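Progress against Task 2.4 (sequence-to-structure conversion) is shown through the following example record, which the project officer requested during the mid-term review.
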Amino acid sequence: MVVAKNESAEKTTHPELKMDGKRHFKGRRPLVNRSNLRDIIIVVCLISAVLYDLDWVRLVVAGVLLTFGCFFHYMTKGVLIRNVVLCREGTYSVVRHPYYMANYFIDSSFCLVSGNVYLLLIYPFLFYWSYGPTIRKEEATLAELHSTEYLRYSLDVPQIFPDAYSVRSLKEVGKGFSMQRITRNEISRFMRFWATGFLIIFIHTLKGARLERLWSFDPVFIHDNLQGFALLISTVVLFVASLLVQCKKEEPALKAE
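Structure tokens generated for the chain above:
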């Protein structure tokens, strides 16, 4: 009887969280939300690349952020078993929402490579505005499903960015990882991330060039703009490859072990 009472108590530990999750998500979505934030950022970055200049420092930092973002995105997908168990291994031992941390790095790299410092400064506010409701909803769901286990986990591991203690878990980032959870859709997404970065850089290279000669394939023009044509070809190849990879059929991803 004592066990039954304890189990019943655990199931009702966080009723207010469940109610809050429902209450916060009624009504219309805000104009800028998680589903369209990246699209908005990319459009603004493409426009900004025409108006702002890019230096090597920002280019290198953007490349590092994009690399880290793709890495954490990949490792997180290889650990995640949604709504089956409470994921605490791999990237989930570093932060509670490593997928969103990866998205933050990726979008920030686009902001950096655009050359628009104002966009880079405003992006953190847009990020929390867009992802905040989703994070609260997911944490309310996890608290309902896993009760005190999730409470202990939330007290041990930071939410989106690692701290001085959780960063030590990076050495075990591969723990619990399975390639079977990586879908073709994820591989396609990584290709589009890099293609987008190359496209923004390509626009920077167009400034000052005679655009009417771009499609003429004049050998002299190509020789004078080798970097721009290499970026253009890389962008097209990655976008096409991402579509081909996504169109292929695949076996269902691993759900649980």
